[in-house]
């Protein structure tokens, strides 16, 4: 018989140790599908490690992959702090990317110093606006935001496809459904010569620090945490709950929108409907691994990015499906959920006899 | 106008509506029983995928069609068990756990499919369920082709609606399931186990969801494609609210939805040259949100939905 006893607020070492343990368990569990696919397990782990950290190129690729994951991770972490279940980061990412391309591919001709901030702002705004509907439906009518944000993902992606096959299609794109390329002046600067790593990573770091300060040091941050702890108590205490939800929704959507800006204006240079391999959903895993802490999100995103980049490289070398990466990431989420119990409770294994008095 | 009438008076249209509704019927009933027991199951999208993949692969490996249905249900039950453990005795967030189950079930299904069939360019096909020929009924004019030329899984879905309604409202078990979603401590005080009731219901509901997925690969199509579930699970979650957690209304909701979808596909051939195809593809998702808004004010959620229950603790 297992018994849970509530525990006092956890110490910092425990807060760090437990998600790390969950990540290690998830990586270890990956040995099962590796064996199933007929891989030599140590060889496969070795390939993954060198694939993510083995060279300067590998390392910069990992960082490039981490940039959108930090932003979608922050989007989920901030929203979940207020118990606003925004599962729509994938769609908000595409909304941000679409806005970035619309502004940055020739609509406005301006020097970088004007154009880049404009593209970044419009991308964030587009992502944020996508959360306005679900948040208002939640606060006004009590419609569950999980379902509306999930359904919006499909609607926004179809809208992007519509634009890419219609008004925003690149006439020089050989018939492919892709947007016109971004102007050079609208592209985020590269961080290293001959590598793909770009300014989106800087945006992600700034955002992480910004959200950390917002939550820890501002009145809005206090209100967000209070609403997340207990919305009814917060309302009685005079905290503007509706306004807080709307703010959180706007910020959360904007963060996901920034991830789309980075992918388009930092990496690809144009928009296609397969821009994101599920960054929005992986962001949820990142946020949970981070224990919803904005600075933890950076570390968790680096971990998830190294799994994706490492598994991609291992997949190319061995021919094993790179769905392995998604599998490891999903197992990491389940592991960290379970390990969260060890934060909130002391788990005691007790003999059957001694439970009689407790459970009845 | 006469075009619209022509669509509605065509038996094929009603047959298509029922066909489109079938996976949703399985899904809504599955989601409904879970929520009636107090557990939101957002694993549904992944469980659909797992049921579609597992059922198809079992048939492809030679279990026969009904063997495949059984394998799909078992796969659904397995992921239901994971969700049940995470949310019932462990009391974790039902939202996050459900998303976790969806990610896990989807990636595991894709990984197994890709690993078993590493380099096929076109997905291998199976001999799928054929429409039943019911003597007498299938030959009726209009009604026959509209309602009675469906595959066995459609009739199974209709039967499951009736069985679920009977169990929920006419048996002690159903009373206990409904009570455990409204007032779990009252159930505990009757000497019944809240954990066993909730976990059992989530597992059974998940098995039903997986049958919805199996319908896609074994009846609607004859192969497995990546991304084929395409949000159907989330649509079922919306329809559950629309149906105010009642099996009969769930059936009506799914049929209405199927009719709308069949209608817009046919309308597309009439006006498709003026309106981009994506607008029509968006309709199911927009309809689902509209359905949620429509019932929002009077939605009567099971009172203990999303609330974990811990023994000996109020």
From TrEMBL, chain A:
Transmembrane segments: 12-36, 66-85, 91-108, 115-134, 146-164, 197-215, 245-267, 279-311, 323-343
Database matches in InterPro entries: ABC_transp_permease (IPR001851), Bacilysin_exporter_BacE_put (IPR022324)
UniProt keyword annotation of Heme present: no
Keywords from the UniProt entry: Cell membrane, Membrane, Transmembrane, Transmembrane helix
Lineage: superkingdom: Bacteria
Its membrane topology: Multi-pass membrane protein
Keyword Transmembrane helix in annotation: yes
Compartments reported by the entry: Cell membrane
Pfam families in the record: BPD_transp_2
Protein name (database record): ABC transporter permease
Organism: Roseibium polysiphoniae
TrEMBL record, chain B:
Membrane-crossing segments per the record: 12-32, 39-59, 65-88, 95-113, 147-169, 195-217, 279-296
Topology within the bilayer: Multi-pass membrane protein
Signal peptide (from-to): none
Source organism: Roseibium polysiphoniae
Pfam families reported for this sequence: BPD_transp_2 (PF02653)
Name the UniProt record assigns to this protein: ABC transporter permease
Protein's cellular compartments: Cell membrane
Highest taxon listed in the record's lineage: Bacteria
Major site of localization recorded for this protein: membrane
UniProtKB keywords: Cell membrane, Membrane, Transmembrane, Transmembrane helix
């Amino acid at each position: 018989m297992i018994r849970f006893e509530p525990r006092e607020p956890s110490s910092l070492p425990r807060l760090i140790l437990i998600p790390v343990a969950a990540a290690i368990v998830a990586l270890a569990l990956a040995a099962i599908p590796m064996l199933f696919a007929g891989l030599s397990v140590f060889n496969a782990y070795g390939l993954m490690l060198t694939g993510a950290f083995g060279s300067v190129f590998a390392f910069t690729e990992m960082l490039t992959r981490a940039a959108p994951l930090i932003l979608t991770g922050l989007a989920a972490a901030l929203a979940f702090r207020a118990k606003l279940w925004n599962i729509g980061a994938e769609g908000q990412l595409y909304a941000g990317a679409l806005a970035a391309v619309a502004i940055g591919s020739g609509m406005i001709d301006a020097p970088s110093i004007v154009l880049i901030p404009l593209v970044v702002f419009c991308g964030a705004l587009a992502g944020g606006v996508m959360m306005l509907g679900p948040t208002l439906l939640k606060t006004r009518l009590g419609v569950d935001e999980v379902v509306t944000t999930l359904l919006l993902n499909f609607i926004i992606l179809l809208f992007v496809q519509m634009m890419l096959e219609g008004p925003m299609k690149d006439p020089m794109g050989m018939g492919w459904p892709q947007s016109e390329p971004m102007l050079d002046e609208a592209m985020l600067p590269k961080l290293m010569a001959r590598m793909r790593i770009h300014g989106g990573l800087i945006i992600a770091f700034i955002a992480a620090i910004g959200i950390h300060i917002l939550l820890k040091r501002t009145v809005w941050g206090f209100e967000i945490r209070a609403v997340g702890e207990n919305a009814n108590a917060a309302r009685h205490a005079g905290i503007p709950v509706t306004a807080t939800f709307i703010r959180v929704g706007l910020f959360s959507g904007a963060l996901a929108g920034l991830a789309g800006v980075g992918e388009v204006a930092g990496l690809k240079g144009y928009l296609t409907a397969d821009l994101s391999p599920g960054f929005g959903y992986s962001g949820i895993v990142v946020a949970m691994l981070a224990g919803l802490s904005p600075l933890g999100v950076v570390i968790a995103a680096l971990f998830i990015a190294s799994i994706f980049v490492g598994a991609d490289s291992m997949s190319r070398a061995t021919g094993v499906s790179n769905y392995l990466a998604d599998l490891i990431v999903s197992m990491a989420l389940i592991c960290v959920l379970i390990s969260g119990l060890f934060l909130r409770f002391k788990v005691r294994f007790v003999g059957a006899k001694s439970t009689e008095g407790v459970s009845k | 106008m006469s075009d619209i009438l022509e669509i509605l008076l065509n038996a094929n249209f009603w047959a298509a509506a029922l066909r489109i509704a079938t996976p949703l019927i399985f899904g809504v009933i599955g989601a409904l029983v879970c929520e009636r027991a107090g557990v939101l199951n957002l694993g549904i999208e992944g469980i659909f995928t797992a049921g579609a993949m597992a059922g198809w692969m079992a048939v492809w490996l030679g279990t026969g069609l009904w063997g495949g249905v059984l394998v799909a249900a078992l796969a659904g039950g397995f992921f239901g068990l994971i969700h049940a453990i995470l949310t019932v005795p462990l009391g974790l967030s039902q939202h996050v756990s459900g998303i976790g189950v969806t990610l896990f079930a989807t990636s595991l299904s894709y990984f197994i499919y890709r690993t078993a069939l590493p380099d096929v360019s076109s997905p291998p096909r199976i001999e799928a369920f054929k429409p039943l020929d019911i003597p007498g009924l299938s030959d009726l004019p209009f009604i026959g082709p509209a309602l009675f030329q469906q595959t066995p899984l459609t009739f199974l879905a209709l039967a499951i609606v009736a069985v679920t309604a009977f169990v929920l409202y006419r048996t002690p078990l159903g009373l206990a399931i409904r009570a455990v979603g409204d007032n779990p401590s009252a159930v505990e005080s009757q000497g019944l186990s809240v954990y066993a009731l909730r976990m059992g219901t989530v597992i059974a509901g998940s098995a039903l969801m997986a049958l919805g997925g199996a319908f896609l690969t074994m009846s609607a199509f004859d192969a497995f494609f990546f991304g084929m579930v395409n949000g159907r699970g989330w649509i079922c979650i919306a329809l559950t609210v629309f149906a105010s957690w009642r099996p009969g209304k769930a059936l009506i909701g799914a049929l209405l939805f199927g009719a709308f979808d069949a209608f817009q596909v046919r309308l597309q051939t009439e006006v498709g040259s003026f309106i981009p195809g994506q607008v029509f593809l968006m309709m199911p998702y927009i309809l689902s949100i509209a359905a949620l808004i429509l019932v929002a004010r009077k939605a009567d959620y099971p009172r203990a939905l999303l609330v974990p229950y811990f023994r000996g603790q109020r």
